[in-house]
Design brief:
Elements lengths: L3 H11 L12 E4 L8 E5 L4 H9 L4 E4 L16 H12 L2 E4 L2 H4 L5 H8 L2 E11 L3 E9 L3 H10 L13 E9 L16 E13 L3 H11 L7 E5 L4 E17 H11 L8 E3 L5 E11 L4 H7 L3 E5 L3 H9 L4 E5 L1 H5 L2 H15 L5 E4 L12
Parallel strand pairs: 2-3, 2-15, 3-4, 12-13, 13-14
Antiparallel strand pairs: 1-4, 5-10, 6-8, 6-9, 7-8, 10-12, 11-14
Length: 375
């Protein structure tokens, strides 16, 4: 039996809640972690029509990109639209789980799916998140204790670099000390200067494992007072973060690029809006799934030919165009994020299968874009 807890464990690994923006509301909204999950529906919005689709289709879990309760509420009474949705979900035994900005910042995430939909290659984050904070531990040990110390530090979490473990560097030198009255030296005598051949051992470690590594170091060292250093390493950008920058396989005129976007994304009444010279050649493109006019400075600094996003407002767009770069391609918010659903479905199914679990999944094709008619 696959439980809701099993599914959430995988979703949280794919879209870690720690990657969400501070203002966001992600995670489980309704549902019992112990309940069985056989059928899962993926959708962009937890709107009434989508919830009805989940209930009528006999789905046990609804996974959406947008939160149902993004802002604080004082009541979930059934007399309110959102309260009614929550009551119906609980009554029908349908769990609701949200992956919002944690999915935006994941790799692969929402903007990766948008980039892939239009054929971008060699993608990188537009707004890279910092990589996990790292330390370097340096310890000095008697030469014959080197391998035992490396083993102890590795067991505590140091020395993991990509697909390698127990990664360490060591070099030989001399350590010197004079034990004072009250000391109980492993080597040498109280009051005498001692010179000992020692190895300097260096290993990297996630900062969150610092305490465990230091405790392991002290426990494994034969000295009464082991000498060691902890260096905090410079923060580096990760491969996660908002938006993506990539390159088209074949450069296109802006007008043809806009048609490619229209053909690659679900149709909406919003359509595809374009700002720029229709004949301009487009090769490098920045994309942001969802509302993207807050990223104009980063997009302009990246020097791309075009920017594909949603919800562009008049003033930010005209200010951006005043600089001459880049061309703008604006699509419906829902359409820009819908491609992610297939990625989330595929990755979840693969992860569950690797754990010996199978579920039936479906992607909602209901268009929940806010605009239903353009005249």
């Amino acid at each position: 039996m696959t439980t809701l807890a099993d599914v959430i464990t995988v979703l949280d690994r794919l879209y870690d809640p720690a990657w969400a923006e501070s203002w966001d509301a992600v995670g489980l909204v309704t549902g019992d972690p112990e309940q069985e999950v056989r059928r899962i529906l993926f959708a962009v919005d937890p709107m009434r029509a989508v919830v009805d689709e989940a209930i009528e289709g006999g789905f046990d879990l609804l996974v959406t990109h947008h939160p149902l309760l993004l802002r604080g509420v004082n009541s979930v009474a059934a007399t309110t639209p959102k309260g009614s949705v929550i009551h119906d979900l609980i009554r029908a035994g349908v769990a609701l789980h949200v992956c919002h900005t944690n999915a935006d910042n994941a790799n692969p995430g929402v903007s990766d799916a948008l980039a892939a939909a239009i054929g971008l290659r060699d993608t990188r984050p537009l707004k890279a998140m910092p990589d996990e904070p790292m330390d370097k531990v340096v310890v000095f040990v008697p030469v014959d204790e080197t391998q035992a110390m490396i083993d102890a530090l590795a067991k505590a979490g140091a020395g993991q670099i990509g697909d390698y473990e127990r990664a360490a560097w060591s070099g030989t030198g001399e350590g010197t000390f004079r034990p004072l009255q009250g000391a109980n030296p492993t080597i040498g005598s109280v009051g005498d200067i001692e010179v000992v051949p020692e190895r300097r051992v260096e290993m990297l470690l996630p900062r969150r494992k610092r305490r465990a590594v230091v405790e392991a170091l002290v426990a494994a060292h034969s000295y009464e007072e082991p000498a060691y250093d902890i260096y905090e390493l410079a923060a580096l950008p990760s491969d996660r973060g908002g938006g993506r920058i990539g390159v088209l396989e074949v450069p296109l005129p802006l007008s043809a690029f806009a048609r490619l976007v229209a053909e690659s994304l679900p149709r909406t009444e919003h359509g595809v809006r374009v700002s720029g010279d229709p004949d301009r050649t487009i090769e490098t493109v920045a994309v942001v799934g969802g509302a993207g006019d807050s990223e104009f400075d980063r997009v302009r600094a990246a020097g791309v030919d075009a920017y594909l996003t949603a919800d562009l407002r008049h003033h930010p767009a005209t200010e951006a165009r005043a600089y001459g770069d880049p061309a703008l391609v604006d699509v419906a918010h829902w359409a820009s994020e819908w491609p992610w659903l297939a990625d989330a479905e595929r990755l979840l199914v693969e992860e569950l299968a690797a754990r010996g679990s199978t579920v039936d999944t479906h992607i909602s094709t209901l268009c929940t874009d806010a605009w239903t008619l353009r005249i």
